[in-house]
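[audit] Reproducing an earlier prediction to check determinism. Same input, same settings, fresh worker. If the tokens differ from the archived copy the diff job will pick it up downstream; this log only records the rerun itself.
[audit] input (217 residues):
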Amino acid sequence: MNVYLDLSHTALKYLKDTEVNISNLLIMTGDFNIRDSIWDLSFPHHSTFSDDLFTIADSFNLKLLLPINHVLTRYSDSNTRANSVIDLMFLRSGLIEVNNHFIHPDLWLSSDHASLSVMITIEEEYVDLFKFSIAKNSEEEKKFIKDVLLAIKSINILDLSDISKIEDVTNSFASKVELAWKSNTKRVWITKHSKSWWNEDCNHTLTNYRLSRSLEN
């Protein structure tokens, strides 16, 4: 979430007085326009606005992120205003791997604020490209149900006198159901166009339309 506080701290007052429903917030950053000795070593005072800011950050489960390099973030072009640290980052509590906030004092260019950066690592994750499924109301579904019913009928319940025999029966049944599934499923590629409600009727209707190009189809 990017935050800008004007000199009247309007956004701070809004966030304090309004119940904002934002879940799973990772980082809150921006120009907070608050000078405080907590993050600015050249400033000797504490601001009451900082207390409100910490209260708001805590409500989002965020903690102040201290930069790797403690340098100024705002550079004044006026002799009446001192350079300062007013650009901050708040990070989700306990997220240690993102704790690498850096200030770039050489990249403020035409702005009067230095750039801030943080490296967010994305863990490698396996994503399925296809799945095995049985279309609803298809012949494959009827065959699968028939195979499962046969598996149920073939269960031998004459001797279930101990745990090992019960396990043998349930494992045998599970194997037959798994075989029925593998025998009747079709491998389907997962795409952004995949729809759980698509079935054989949809395929037939679409084929008819493509052949006839008639609006009736």
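[audit] rerun output stored. Observation attached for the diff report: The first strand starts at residue 2 and ends at 4.
[audit] end
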